[in-house]
């Protein structure tokens, strides 16, 4: 009788040990999920076209945020910047001239022309009057009278024009002309800022810390705007893409702390549930779960802020979610 009893006790102990080590599913206190490392990648290129001058990193190099990855030949952009600066200076001088108005010498010159025109008119009036009196006494001809009348009218017109010119010199530029010059200056400044931005865009900077995955171009190549020259794997934050079935969805809460492990090392990574998809989908073929692949699941994104280079793109991982 003792042997069957001992055998039953051993079987019960083994079953309990297996149960304690078995990942908890929907009916347990915790939850075990399976997923893959999802490292974000970015294709890096210049915002302007030009000739590639330097490529500062090789494939596999680690870079920090803000590092200068590559540069273009900036001589054409420096010339464009100098041209824009000259245009701004020209527009500033033109606007200052309009706002200042006429110089004192120009005003005095306009007054002198008015005085000259007035003297010419006075002389023309006297000559016309004299010829008219002579003609009335038959001592002159009608042709001379008409000629002096025309000279009088011409002198009067020149005097009127000189007075108008003096008025413009005293009044200064029109408001509309000043507004047009201000708009032209604003356009020149905007063009200068654009030239400055284009000059800065000849340096390609790393947007985040990461590892160079591929070096697409070499120095001397002519690249267009947006043409990739590097592929960068971002390492600031590592993500894990996992899936949870609908019955277990209630055990996953955004912000919950989880433990991530891999098959290649014994290290445990602490992460947090950052996103739960609101849309159901069929289990992807790359996901290893005990449930049937026809079950509907919801995609999770788990954030691992303190990861290392042992987590690589696509690596399968196990995600342990402790009891709520």
Structural class: alpha+beta
Strands, count? 14
How many structural domains in the coordinates? 3
- Please estimate the helix content: 40-55%
Order of helices and strands: HEEEEEHHHHEEEEEEEEE
Low-confidence stretches: 16-28
Average pLDDT number: 82
Radius of gyration: 44 Å
Instruction: State the shape.
Output: rod-shaped
Approximate strand percentage: 25-35%
Strand order within the widest beta sheet: 1-10-13-12-11-14
State the end-to-end CA separation.
45 Å
Number of helices: 5
Can you lay out the helices and strands and say which pair or pack?
Elements: H1 2-21, E1 31-38, E2 41-45, E3 50-55, E4 62-63, E5 68-72, H2 75-100, H3 104-136, H4 142-171, H5 175-200, E6 203-205, E7 210-215, E8 222-223, E9 228-234, E10 238-245, E11 257-262, E12 268-282, E13 296-304, E14 316-321
Antiparallel strand pairs: 1-10, 1-14, 2-9, 3-5, 3-8, 4-7, 5-6, 7-9, 10-13, 11-12, 11-14, 12-13
Helix pairs in contact: 2-5, 3-4
